[in-house]
Structures are given as C-alpha cells and as structure tokens.
Here is the input.
Amino acid sequence: MMTYFKDILSGFYSLLAGMAVTIRYFVKPIVTVQYPRQKIQMTPRYRGHIELIIDPETGTHNCIACEMCVRICPSQLIHVEGVKVDAKKKLPSRYYIEYYYCSLCGLCLESCPTKTLKWSNEYRMAGHRREDSVINLLARMQEQQYALGLPLTPIPEPKPEAEAAAAPAAEVKE
Amino acid sequence: MEQLVQSLGSEGTKMVVGLIAVIALVSVNALFLIWMERKVAAHMQLRPGPMEVGWHGCIQTIADAIKLMGKELITPEEVDRPIFFLAPIVIFLPVLLSFLVIPFSSSWIIRDMNVGLVLILAFSTLGVLAILMAGWASNNKYSVLGAIRSVAQNIAYEIPLLVTVMSVILMVGSFKLTDIVAAQSGCWFVLTQPLAFILYIICGTAETNRAPFDIPEAESELVAGFHTEYSGMRFALFFLAEYTNMLIVAAVATVLFLGGWKGPFLPGVIWFLIKVYAVIFLMMWFRWTFPRVRFDQLITFAWKILIPLAFVNLLITALVLKLR
Here is the structure.
C-alpha cells in the first residue's frame, strides 16, 4: 500500500520535472534561422565554391590567365579565356566554373601560381535550373569590390575571332 | 453587452443567433488553436514555427484550410458507404450541441439548463461512437485497431471523469453550470479540490484523444488510426472536432474549477476565454512533454490509479461535507 502511493507521488514528481524542462525551453530564444530569408556567418574554413582573392595592395585579383587551374581540374569545369592587354600582361576576360560538376578537391587552389584562388563562404547554392550554379568569378569579384568600395576591375573584351567559336556552349550567369 | 443579449428577446431568436455565434466561434477557435499548437510545439523545440503566411504565420491555417477544401474526397472501394459518409458529421454535431449550455458570461449562455453538465458529458461520449463508425466503415485494419483502442480508452477514462466531476457537484448541489460558477465567488474549486482538478485534466486529455493518450491515432503504429482513409473536408471535420473538443474540455474545467467568468476589471467573456486558453495551453504543454503511453500502461493507469483516486476524492468530499 505504501509503495502504491509512493509510486504515484514519485511518478507525479517526474511528470512535473519533465514539464519544467519543456517550459524552460519554451521561453528560451529560438536557435533556427529562416533559411532563404536569413543568412548565417559561415566559419572561415568553410569550403564553398572557389572565388578570386582580392589582393589588398592592388585592390584586384592576381589572375594571369595561365589556365593551370583549367588543366588540373579533374572534372574540367573551370573555363578561362585570357587576352593580352599589353606585351607582357595577360588578363582573364572570362572566368567561370560549372559548379555542379565540382568535387571540391582543391587542386585548382594548389596549382594556382599566383595564389589568387580561395574557397568562398557561400553556402546558399540552391537554384531552379542547372545553369543557376554556373558561377562567373569575375562578375562575383566585381560585386565584392563594389561592396568594399574598391574601384571595379574592368573585364577586358575577349578576342573576337576564332576563340569565340571554340568557347563551350554553357551559359554564363551574369 | 447585457442589453445586447436582452434585446434579442424571445428564446427562439436567441437560439438562432447563438447557433451562428457558436459555429463562428468553433471555426475561429480551430484556426487559432492549430496555429497555437504549432507555435507552442515549435518554441518548445527552439524553432520559430510557421512564419511565412501573415504575421508570424497567423493565417497559415486559413491557407491550409483552403487547400483541404480543394482536395478530392476519396472514398475507397470497399468502405461501408453510409457509415463512412456519416461518421464525420456524427463526430461534429454533438460537439456543437455542447455549447448550448456553456456560460461564457453571466448572460452569454444560450440555454441555462438544470442538467447542463450532464448534457455536456452525454454528448461528448457520442464522439466515441463516431470514431468507432469511422474506424469500422473504413475497412482498414489500422482504422479498426484505432477505433477499438479509442473505445476502450474512452470507456476507461469516462469513469474517473464522471466520479471527479461528481465531487464538485456534491459541493454545489446542482448540475446547472451558472450555479457552479456562482458557488465559486469566494474561492475557486481548484483550491478546495486540487486532486479533482488534476484528475479532470488528465481524463479530459485522454477523452480528447490527445498526446500522451493519443493511441487511437498513434501515427507511429497505426498510420493515422481511425481517420486513415479520410481526406479533404471530411478529414478536416475530424480535425475541427478534435480542437473543439479541447475547447469544451477546457471550458468545463474553467466552469468547474477556475471560477468561470469571474474576475476583476475585465468583462466576463474575456476572463472566461483567458482561463479556457490557459487550460488549453496546459494540454498542449502535456502533448509536447510526454511520450505516448503504451496501451496496457494506459488502461492500467486508468483502472489502477485514476479510478481509485477519484473514488477516494469523492469519499473524502462527501465525508467533509457531511461532518461540517
């Protein structure tokens, strides 16, 4: 008989203890974010797609359009076209990646002779079409320069003749 | 407000206006409670809940209701058609009738019957019949299992519920709900009958088939229990009935234990609704705290703990009243 009442009381106490836990969580601030509306700060070592580093001294990228990244990419998803702006200097006129093929191996970063590639912190890569994840790195860098208040790096005009016909058919997101 | 009610004049007009008001209340209440349930659940799990449609998702339920109305009413091949068709109606009508006697304030009551409480208890039992009809007519093993469980559970929990209510009735000496509220002008019955209040809330939660007593629709074992085969507006009627049943259980708890519409400063209706929704919040709090009980635990709990305690409570109440 005593154990019967003791069981009821201890059971009732455990129910109250459980309810105390839930009401404490009820008044705590929420921890989730509204995914497309809110953005969270990713950790600095997050590996998103690649992007061009803005050199703090020159305020622009250091890419020399050597196409090392294009050659080493195992998925062949990097497309670079360079133009000679003067006798010694070559600059990329188009630099875009087809991110949907990327396996994030990082060989492009390691092979880059001027160390001008890095992982971006972008994690919101959802899109409606496959072409939405084609990333134009030059345009992306211009946006970042605009946000930082730096002068925008002009994108040189590509060479008009034969190369244009040889360019891959994939669309470039502007 | 008092003049407004009095100006309605004859009993017949009062009934019609009351019925329209009750249907409006039931719909708005269900819309609000579903939103509230989702919000309470979300905040207990540290997430914001519905946020997209309207301010903090407040008209999300309306969007869902419109979607439900647009759905096809699927009638499976082998169902017992008349019963399958009738079950959602049978579950919803008694729920509406119970509002006939609930006093929202001293004058906001459609019909002040001297058997008020008995009427509510009698009609709320009809819901079990509807669940059994739905489960049986669906011709689906999960539905029938859910319905059988529901009947066993409701019969088991009806007894402690009635016995608990009886101890309050003994103190008042009347089944009239306005009399019960009037008897609490000095001290709410929750203070003189705390055990009865706890037992009533537990039994009420079980009667409305809500977690942790939601084994008739235990989704992890029975798909959705008795309403597995229902879709569209028929399913919505079951949903509506569940949330309206919660409102009735909470309203009766308010009348029996929490002093009904009595309270300072604010008008009676506001006090009544505040108390009702506080009780409903308590029931939601249960749902998001306790895991679902197993069936044998459920029946053991009713017969070995609730019923003896309810009888002890009744006995002590009777003795105290007699010896005073």
In short: The interface with chain B takes residues 8, 15, 18-19, 21-23, 25-32, 34 of chain A (CB under 8 Å). The radius of gyration of chain A is 26 Å. The first strand of chain A starts at residue 50 and ends at 52. The helical segments of chain A are 2-27, 68-72, 107-111, 137-148, 162-166.
